Sequence to fold (267 residues):
Amino acid sequence: RKLKEQLSLVDAVIEVLDARLPLSSCYENITGLLGEKPRLILLNKADLTDRAELKKWISILEEKTGCPVLTTDAKNSKDLNQIVKKVIELSEPRIQALMAKGLLRRPARVMVVGMPNVGKSSIINKLTRSSKTKIGAKAGVTRQQQWVRINPQLELLDTPGIIPMKQEDQERARKLAFVNSVSEHAYSNEIVARELLSMLENKYETQTREYYNYPQGELSIENLALARNWITSKGQPDTERTSVYILRDFREGKIGKFILDTEAPDE
Fold:
């Protein structure tokens, strides 16, 4: 309900996805949620992915959604002007429609939406870094909303729109847990790390073995714990500690630059 209220205030939307999960981090009914609202899809954390593979996913998403797709990450601002230019362009039809009714031209108004932990706040911070001009309440805009003027042509709602997740698809839920888009209280580190290690072994075995310096033998949490001499007080492999490190290594891109989604959206 709150998200729908926020959507009514804006001309266009920036939907943030995790570039490592270009399909699984996308809300299935996003079109139903946004209606006819123009949308820019932003694949965040692109620095943690295989760029050649990501390029293929950009084409897949553009064809499937009919929306423009750009990539970004929180570490640089080289793409900032491109993002700003695109959302202003997407907002222009609504601005023109308002002017046709006799209203004066105003800046485009946009907001950032996406599932938990895909990097919505980092995108907002990136967009607002060069401009801290708070606009606040204005006529026709809910008083609780806070706006930031990015430039004379663009205003950004500084509160991210959080799209709730449905955990009906367990494979998707596991992948979201891999990238920490699910509350840590909702899963076991060891169970998720085992699933992740299995997926990495199937798709990126060479890179995973090279990173952990484990060229032969079963690629298991127990074996990786023993290889690092991580042993509990009872003399058993410390699977919990190892699981935490495996998840951290993947999330920080240390094992390699990976995209975990494989199936095309139309399948």
